[in-house]
Amino acid sequence: MTFSLHELTPLENESIARGIPILGKEKGEWLFEFILQHKPAKILELGTANGYSGIILGSAGGELTTIDIDTHLATEAQQHFKQFGINATIILGDGIEKIKHFEKETFDLVFIDFAKKKYITILEDAIRITKKNGYIIADNITMEGCCDYKEKMLHDPRVHTELILIKDGLSCSKKL
Hints:
Blueprint: H1 9-18, H2 25-38, E1 42-46, H3 52-57, E2 63-68, H4 71-83, E3 88-92, H5 95-98, E4 107-112, H6 119-129, E5 130-139, H7 147-155, E6 159-164, E7 170-175
Parallel strand pairs: 1-2, 1-4, 2-3, 4-5
Antiparallel strand pairs: 5-7, 6-7
């Protein structure tokens, strides 16, 4: 199912009004273009919230697996995924623990947007489960809690990282 980002405006407005942290329109546009260009087949998202970014991640038809600790928001996300025709599986639980369970499975894209100070704790697992020439994208990368993750990724020889300086930023790391 193809759609335009304009169709996400009601969900964006509702999310902002309710204080649900979402990617937002500007970074959403960048991510949407990235997804359309790279067409990842298997995607892992850490931090589902109400599904806003998951809809963008799955917009090119990829298989989305998303992890969140909040049952209520995960239920909302499931409804939004169905509404937009996104092929998504939601795993309830702590992303730090759940990512360790992916032992043989690999992903074309890992998208990180959960507890900012915990990005560093999943860095090794994120690199491990990302396919060669796959990507790891992290949101809010210029926020204080992400500094250690950002610095590590910028200097890790296993990846090539670029910073996308839109609002509070994204990092886009290609696994070498």
